[in-house]
């Protein structure tokens, strides 16, 4: 490994050692080669192009679709003392000119640029007159038409190797199956490229999925243990986003809505507050989050089911980029299943497309219903190997119980049959429970032999049985026919008593991370006697963040403050040994933190 790279890692970033494939990638790219890097979120992709840009002569050009985040990325680099700038449509003309001049004068180490800007002739001409260190193509899966984030501007990036054949290209992404990887390599012409594929595991994320009963209350129970932590709550519809945000605000949380229907200015403000303030909960549709690189998002909660494991993985992956314990929490119910099945069926695509959508949904439902380790299901889905037990998901920590639901299922299936397979879940449950509703009386269903045979089972449990039978394919929901429940061939052996059926016992309360001693035991980090110093360190960070107009985590990560708390450095040399404290940050903020730490230690 080149000494230079390690030196930059230590003195500039304040980190001890490289992670995963970082060292190999940096060496390979610094030597002028192409690379494809697949690394999970939080794996440390940025260093893989930043350090080679610094080692190689010239400016490193980073192509990213995420204009809204360029400012923060540039701020973060500038805090480290790196000469970074960005070019995109949000910049006034005069500032653009200044950056162009700096570029031509060779005064920049890093230039962030949006693809639509890069492919303009004007920009290409400009770049041809500069010394270039490399091109980094971030979110590289956007070149793939198979992927889920295809962007037409990315297609034109094939011109990079045509116009700049000798400049190394490094493509980076957190999500790409084998097909997408192939497409990236072809489109960007990554000849003589090494591929660096890291596993998908995010060990610090705890996965928990529960049956939806009283969604808001379940969410509240979950959030109560996470007061003043930053997180994202995903909802499907704009209306639900707004309702949920308003409701959480009433409950005393700083909760801000975000969806594509809000004015751009407001969206921007909410995103900024999420990034810059401590402890903001953003309630959003999936319009939010692409490229959010806030490292200290402590939880991602889903109130609605994502339509595939890819989507779930990407959304939950926004939690815990800093490697500290984080939660991926979800509740889901029959409604979600029906809605997604409907979407998969009703989409305009070809039969093949529909089949693939169904397949993806089934995998997602499998993840929800599984009674063994969830991480294993997730990782196997991405063709990663995994141990049988991860110890950091709800199923590993509180193994689900099952019950013999054969008889209950028979009662349910017979009721569906006897009511003519024309009624939805609510009506069928009314019949089972012997409720003389208007509809029951109207159709004379109180005279059926199955009327009232399910009184012994609670309504919530019936819902759970119905959902599990739908997921297992014993029942289907006829979308065109008023969501009527219908039998499928698969239910025959159960009805005939040839097959018994064990179903999951749902916890009525959503499980939360309560197991003491588990990896994700929360709040355990700060001992009561340390609280005061901890608050002081955080206040200091907030003050500096306001002064420099950057988010708090750009000053120092929580983990860095925590290390200060644990090791109590009182000299500059000691402070410099702390992870995340490099020379530039030491110079800028070291004094303020040392004042606090020295006062605390009684040294002055
Ligand atoms: P991503 O792969 O999601 O782009 P980042 O590059 O943003 O990840 O890195 C995630 C976090 O991990 C950042 O805060 C980064 O500074 C930190 N990080 C990256 N590499 C290292 C390392 N070798 N040692 C310590 N922290 C690192
Ligand atoms: Zn597990």
Keyphrases for this structure?
single chain; 604 residues; alpha/beta; Rossmann fold; Arc Repressor Mutant, subunit A; 4 domains; 7-stranded parallel β-sheet; binds adenosine-5'-diphosphate; binds zinc ion
How does this model look, in words?
This protein has 604 residues and is an alpha/beta fold. It has 4 domains: 3-197, P-loop containing nucleotide triphosphate hydrolases (Rossmann fold, 3-Layer(aba) Sandwich); 205-397, Rossmann fold (3-Layer(aba) Sandwich); 402-504, Winged helix-like DNA-binding domain superfamily/Winged helix DNA-binding domain (Arc Repressor Mutant, subunit A, Orthogonal Bundle), CATH 1.10.10.10; 528-601, Orthogonal Bundle (DNA polymerase, domain 1), CATH 1.10.150. Helices cover 46% and strands 13% of the residues. The protein is built from 28 helices and 17 strands. Strand 12, helix 14 and strand 13 (326-332) form a beta-alpha-beta unit. The longest helix is centred in the middle third of the chain and has 19 residues, at 351-369. The protein starts with a helix and ends with a helix. Bound molecules: adenosine-5'-diphosphate and zinc ion. Adenosine-5'-diphosphate binds at residues 15, 18-19, 22, 39, 41-47, 293, 295, 321-322.
């Amino acid at each position: 490994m080149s000494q230079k790279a390690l030196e930059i890692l230590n003195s500039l970033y304040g980190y001890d050692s490289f992670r995963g494939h970082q060292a190999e990638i940096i060496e390979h790219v610094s030597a002028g080669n192409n690379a494809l890097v697949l690394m999970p979120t939080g794996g440390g992709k940025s260093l893989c192009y930043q350090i080679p840009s610094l080692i190689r002569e010239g400016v490193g050009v980073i192509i990213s679709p995420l204009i809204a985040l360029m400012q923060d990325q540039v701020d973060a680099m500038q805090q480290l003392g790196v000469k970074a700038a960005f070019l995109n449509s949000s910049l006034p003309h005069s500032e653009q000119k200044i950056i162009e001049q700096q570029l031509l004068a060779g005064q920049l180490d890093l230039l962030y640029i949006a693809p639509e800007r890069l492919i303009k002739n004007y920009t290409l001409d400009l770049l041809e007159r500069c010394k270039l260190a490399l091109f980094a193509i971030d979110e590289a899966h956007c070149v793939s038409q198979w992927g889920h984030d295809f962007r037409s501007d990315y297609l034109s990036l094939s011109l990079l190797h045509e116009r700049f054949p000798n400049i190394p290209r490094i493509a980076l992404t957190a999500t790409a199956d084998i097909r997408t990887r192939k497409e990236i390599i072809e489109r960007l012409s990554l000849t003589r490229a090494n591929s660096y594929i890291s596993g998908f595991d995010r060990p610090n994320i705890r996965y928990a999925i529960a049956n939806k009963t009283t969604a808001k209350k379940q969410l509240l129970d979950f959030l109560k243990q996470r007061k003043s932590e930053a997180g994202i709550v995903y909802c499907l519809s704009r209306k639900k986003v707004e309702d949920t945000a308003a409701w959480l605000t009433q409950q005393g949380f700083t909760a801000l809505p975000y969806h594509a229907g809000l004015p751009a200015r407001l969206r921007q403000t909410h995103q900024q507050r999420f990034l810059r303030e401590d402890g903001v909960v953003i309630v959003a549709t999936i319009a939010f989050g692409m490229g959010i690189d806030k490292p200290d998002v402590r939880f991602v909660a889903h109130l609605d089911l994502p339509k595939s494991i890819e989507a779930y993985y990407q959304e939950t992956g926004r939690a815990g980029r800093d490697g500290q314990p984080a939660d991926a929490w979800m509740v889901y119910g029959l409604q979600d299943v029906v809605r997604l099945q409907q979407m998969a069926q009703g989409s305009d695509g070809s039969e093949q497309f529909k089949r693939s959508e169904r397949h993806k949904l089934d995998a997602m439902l499998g993840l929800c219903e599984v009674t063994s380790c969830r991480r294993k299901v997730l990782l196997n889905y991405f063709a990663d190997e995994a141990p049988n037990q991860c110890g950091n998901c709800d199923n590993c920590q509180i193994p689900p119980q099952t019950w013999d639901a054969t008889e209950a299922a028979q009662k349910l299936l017979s009721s569906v049959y006897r009511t003519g397979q024309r009624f939805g879940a609510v009506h069928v449950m009314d019949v089972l429970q012997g409720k003389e509703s208007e509809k029951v009386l109207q159709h004379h269903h109180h005279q059926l032999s199955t009327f009232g045979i399910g009184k012994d089972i609670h309504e919530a449990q019936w819902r759970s049985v119905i959902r599990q039978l739908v997921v297992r394919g014993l029942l289907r929901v006829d979308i065109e026919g008023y969501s009527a429940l219908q039998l499928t061939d698969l239910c025959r052996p159960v009805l005939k008593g040839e097959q018994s059926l064990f179903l999951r016992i749902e916890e009525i309360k959503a499980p939360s991370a309560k197991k003491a001693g588990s990896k994700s035991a929360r709040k355990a980090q700060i001992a009561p006697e340390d609280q005061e110093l901890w608050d002081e360190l955080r206040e200091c960070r907030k003050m500096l963040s306001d002064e420099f107009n950057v988010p708090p985590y750009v000053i120092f990560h929580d983990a860095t403050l925590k290390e200060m708390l644990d090791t109590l450095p009182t000299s500059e040399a000691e402070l410099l040994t702390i992870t995340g404290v490099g020379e530039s940050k030491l110079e800028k903020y070291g004094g303020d933190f040392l004042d606090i730490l020295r006062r605390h230690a009684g040294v002055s």
